[in-house]
What we know:
By secondary structure, the protein is an alpha+beta fold. It has helices at 8-24, 27-46, 93-97, and strands at residues 3-6, 52-53, 62-66, 69-77, 80-88. The protein has one domain: YaeB-like fold, CATH 3.30.2310.20. 41% of the residues lie in helices and 28% in strands. A five-stranded mixed sheet has the order 1-5-4-3-2. The mean pLDDT is 92.
Amino acid sequence: MVSYKFTKEAILDLSEIWNYTIETWSEKQADKYYGLIINECNLLAKSPELGRSYFEVYPGLFGQKIAKHIIFYRRLDHSTIEIARILHEIRDLNNELNPTKQ
C-alpha cells in the first residue's frame, strides 16, 4: 500500500490556499481546488517518479506542478512520500524550501 503524509508546513500551506480561494472566489471553488491537490498527492504516492527533481534547491526534493501551485515532496521509503510544501509557482523557492537560507 502506498501512502503520503503532510509536514506541518504543508498543512498550513493547504489551509492558506483554501482560505485564499474561498475569499477570492467561493467555497465551491475552494473545495474543488483542494480536491485537485489531494488527488494529485494520491497520484504522486502511487507514482513518485512523476515529479521532477528539485535537488538543486534541496537534496532529495521532488515537485509536481498542479494548476498554479507546486507540490513539493520527498520519498521516505518505497511506499511513502512526505508532502513537504505546497507553494504558489511565483514564490521564491530557494528561500521557502531551503531552511539554511531563511
